[in-house]
Design a protein that fits this description.
Blueprint lengths: L15 E4 L3 H11 L1 E7 L6 E6 L2 E6 L5 H13 L4 E10 L9 E9 L2 H7 L10 H14 L3 E8 L8 H8 L3 E5 L2 H11 L2 E11 L8 H19 L3
Parallel strand pairs: 1-4, 1-5, 5-9, 6-7, 7-8
Antiparallel strand pairs: 2-3, 3-4, 5-8, 6-9
Helix pairs in contact: 2-6, 4-7
Length: 235
C-alpha cells in the first residue's frame, strides 16, 4: 500500500529521520540545521523535509500528537525507506530534579497508551530504544556538557487526564517524565527492524498551570536538536 498520510515517494525520505510532533518545529529544524531542505509532504499538516546535515541526508517529519498518529507516520516512513527514527519533543517532568530546558534521554517507556496496547494485543511488554542510538544520544549529551537525565519515561494518551498525584506515584518507580509517543515508536522499531529512540526537553512540571518561559524552552530545543543530529550520524 502506498503511504496515505505521508505522501512522499521512495527517495524523498532519508534513512535518518527526526520526529517532532509539531509541524512548526519540523520547519524550524529544517531551516536552521539542514542544508538545502526540501519539503516533501504537507498532507494533514504532517510537514516533512529532507536536507543534509554535515553532508549526510536527514529528514525531519512531523508526527502530530499522540501514539496513534506517531504510529501511522512511523509505519509509512519505514515503507519509504527510513531506518533510524528519533523522536525529538517535549515532556512534562514528574521528578523535581529535572530543571526547565533539561534534556531527557529515554532508557525505556512505560506503555500507558492505547496504540502500544493494541499492537501487542494486551501482552505485557517493556518498550526500550535501540541500544546503539541510545548510547550515541547519551555520549553526545555528555560530550557537549548539556544538562541531561537518563532513565524511564511514561507514554500516555490523555494530556489533561494525569494529575500531579498520579504522576508522583510513577516517580516512585523511577519515571522521570511523561510524554505521548515514545512507547509505540520503540515497539515499532523492534517489530519492523529499525532503530528508534527518544530525546526530550523538559517543558513543564506535571500539574503546572503553564509551560516554562519560551526562551528557556527554545534553548533546550536547540540543544536537543544538536545532540539528536550528531547522534543519528553515528548509527
Amino acid at each position: 500500500m502506498s503511504p496515505i498520510h505521508v505522501r512522499a515517494r521512495p527517495g524523498d525520505v532519508a534513512e535518518r529521520v527526526l520526529l517532532p510532533g509539531d509541524p512548526g518545529r519540523a520547519e524550524w529544524i529544517a531551516q536552521n540545521f539542514l542544508e538545502e531542505p526540501v519539503r516533501y509532504n504537507t498532507h494533514r499538516g504532517l510537514w516533512g523535509y529532507t536536507g543534509r546535515y554535515k553532508g549526510v541526508p536527514v529528514s525531519v517529519q512531523t508526527t502530530g500528537m499522540g501514539a496513534p498518529s506517531a504510529s501511522i507516520v512511523a509505519e509509512e516512513l519505514i515503507r519509504l525507506g527510513a531506518r533510524v527514527l528519533l523522536r525529538v519533543g517535549t515532556c512534562g517532568a514528574v521528578d523535581e530534579a529535572l530543571a526547565p530546558g533539561d534534556l531527557v534521554i529515554a532508557q525505556g517507556a512505560v506503555p500507558l497508551d492505547g496504540a502500544t496496547r493494541q499492537y501487542l494485543g494486551g501482552l505485557p511488554y517493556a518498550p526500550v530504544p535501540d541500544p546503539l542510538l541510545f548510547r550515541a544520544l547519551w555520549a553526545q549529551a555528555e560530550a557537549k556538557g548539556y544538562p541531561h537525565h537518563v532513565g524511564l519515561i511514561a507514554t500516555e494518551d490523555a494530556f489533561y487526564a494525569t494529575t500531579p498525584e498520579e504522576a508522583r506515584k510513577w516517580a516512585r518507580f523511577g519515571v522521570l517524565a511523561f510524554e505521548m509517543e515514545a512507547s509505540a515508536l520503540f515497539l515499532l522499531g523492534r517489530m519492523r527492524g529499525v532503530r528508534a529512540g527518544a530525546l526530550l526537553v523538559v517543558s513543564n512540571q506535571i500539574g503546572a498551570s503553564e509551560l516554562y518561559p519560551q526562551e528557556v524552552l527554545q534553548e533546550g530545543i536547540r540543544r536537543m536538536v544538536e545532540v539528536a543530529l550528531e547522534a543519528v550520524l553515528e548509527v
